[in-house]
User: Fold this.
Amino acid sequence: MNQNHANPCQPRAALRVAAAAVIALGLCQSVQAQVPGRFYWKSLSGGSAVPLIFESVSGNTNPFDSSHRVSAGAEFDATMAMAGYAQTFSLFDRSAMAAVILPMGRLSGEATKVVNGASVASAQQSASGFGDPMLEFDINLIGPKAQKTIPDAVRYEPGFSLDVLADLALPIGEYDSKQALNLGQNRWYGRIGAPMVMQIGSWVPGRRTTFELLPSAWIFGDNTNYVGQTLKTDPLFQLDAHLTRDFNETLWGSLDASWYNGGKATINGVAGDKRNDIAYGLTIGMQINPNTSLTFGYKSTANDSGTNDMRLDSFMITLISGWHPIIEGSRRLKGE
Amino acid sequence: MKKRTSLTVIAATLATLFAASAPAQTPAKRPNIVILLGDDLGFSDTGAFGSEIKTPNIDALASDGVRFTNFYTHATSSPTRSMLLTGVDNHLNGLGNMDEYTAPNQMGVPGYEGYLSKQVATLPQLLKGAGYHTYMVGKWHLGKAPDLIPAARGFERDFTLLDGAASYWDMTNFTAVAPKSVFTEDGRYLTELPKDYYATKTYTDKLINFIDANRGDGKPFFAYVAHQAPHDPFHLPKEWRNRHVGEYDQGWDAVRQARLKRQIEMGIMPAGTQLSERMWFLPDPTVLAPAARAIQGKKMELYAGMVENLDHHIGRLVQHLKDIGEYENTIFVTFGDNGAEGTDLFKMIAGSPGSRDYLFAATAWSQTHPNAWGDPGSYVGYGPMWAQVSMTPFSQYKGWMAEGGIRNGLIVSGPPVKRAKGSINNGLMHVADIMPTMLELAGASYPEKLDGKTLPPLTGKSWSKVLANQAESPRTEQDYLGWEIFGNHAIRQGEWKIRWQHKSFGKGDWELFNVVKDPAERKDLAASNPDKLKSMLALWDRYAKDNNVILPNRTMFETLEDQLPPRVPDDAGYPPLIYKKQFLPPKDMLAEPKP
Assistant:
């Protein structure tokens, strides 16, 4: 019964929670449109984040163009970096986020030229520069209201959250119509999705567990100058799943899976095969400090031993820095 | 008119004759007795005493019975419990000081054993001898050795936490040298707890089983339901944690004001009652940032959940007694054991970095995230600000002799209560009164000797006439009450109270209050009323002598003055600087700067 009355109202815990919430803003929109788990966790409105994403991909098709055909025996390698900016805000009392991502990098591989549905030649090609920038808008429909204040952030638990998201890629990335392998796609495309987060158990750092799903549909415009031909691509259904779990307050991991179905490409009226592939992976995430988080992930396609099976594997590293004016100001006042 | 009067007289006469002859034909069934004790439950924490916390089951007992607004406990747990169970002053029954804080000059002195002395008789012991079944569930805090546990002190069945506090979920206790809570069941020390253990629920389940096991043998029962709730840590099932989200962000002052307003409307406190000072080291919550208010508010949300969960399980017990037809024949006595807890116990328990207790806390009690509050391994209390709310409108809290430390809300219902249902009484009551009251109502008596030992005289006075609406108080204007713990001491007689408290909660000197006119103890009248002070001091001397009070030469408060900021008045709105809002000039005088 010592009288421990000093500073009984220090908001340290609140600031700590809120600071962590700001960094929960994960943003790493891959051109291939696969994001790590915890991407759609909500954070304090008015927060900002800059993601830096490094991705190394290897396989037998161009991973950045879903219309690209599998080439038997071909090898593709890509080294990509992506930088972006995201802002969280409140819209109709719901959590919302707007972001822009700009891919850049280089890729190389054996591209097959297709004429009237037949492969007529293959050649080693490469591309580098900037890809198609992508705009993303996400708004929560079911789940906790927007975190407009620090108390909201302190009290945030996702429970079951359902968002709707819209992506739109702007066809201004580098594109060479003379070759099949490009960073830009020379067409409009985008997707509609419904990210879901299901909280399992307590929402306590060190013990958080979630099951997350992201069903989405990609819709592609036509590329009227695809090596001198017209490329049409059917809608592509994508389902991402993540089972994420904290190991401790700063380290988490997830089991990842993705399934793509559809996206049949038609070149000058000659239809190819639709995609139907599954990939599995692992991600490790780490909170380096209240402003910075890091993830490291690996993913590989399953059932890819056949000659014409899609085969891809990728390493992805994301480094995300986030901030919020209130949190930063409070930290300055405390001299941290 | 005359004829009607005659009929009334005849009817009354017949009723009297019938009533008088009834016992001769069928002996009156003796009432069951249920003591419902909340640990650190504050005066104003139930709806019946003005709280916004939802306690429908406790409120129903109040509606069916009578509430007492001048009921006194002791300032801390084990002294109160010792007097409840013995009717003897704590300085004579072994709890002259809490076991945890026995001072060097009190060591080895009879009355200061730190456990319930074997020189005193207990209520269950005497009721058992009078033919009652005697059950206990919950917290004991009166000794752990085999000859001191409930089974050795008169309880026929028990499921008991012997410690003063513990986890509600498991056997985790607080310090490196005593890391494990000690439980007994029917006199045996438990090696593990039942599956699905949660203290408040399990205690209730066990008691219901005890009652059912002996149903039908015609014997009444005495049940001592010494709930651990709502003592910190605020451990609470998830479904009870979020019933008041954001409601307490308004801060402690607003909640205190709202409670006092309801208390005045309900008649718990008289019109014109003031709130006590906000403790001088606490901020005005309105000047705090929303984050700070949210975190502090969440603590009170949890506390409210603790009280509501407690009320829920009390409701389960009451409903069970109704289901088995025993409710109408049961006396319920409901109150909190002392003032609400304003001290940060966990800081004290965890020690400082580098200590063994700190290491223990790091492994067993480190779930500090607000979302973990309520889980096993979390430790959250609610601090002095909310303790003051729990004790509205009184001053200070547990451990102190201010009204906020020793005054509690008492509810009594059941067969002996002949007062109007739901009524309020202001008689001067004391926890030591329970022993003589229940002995009388059970048809038992307090012997001069027990097992060859002369028993100390009872301190308390029976409430039977008050309950029967034949008196307004068990005490005359000359009777007085006395307290001492940790060196803080006090006397109340009639409207007057003197108290001596360590600085800075007190002055290190005597203070005099008229607690009827000034229940918040805002105005010290010692200087202006020396005669009254002198006469009250004489009572203190008498109390100390009669009860062998030895003021401790060491206490937990001995360095308190150095730890706290200097005590200053709590003048509302001072300093104006922090309340002055943005000046808004008249719109018609606004202008852009000239080029």
Chain A has one domain: 12-334. Confidence is low (pLDDT under 50) at residues 1-7, 19-32 of chain A.
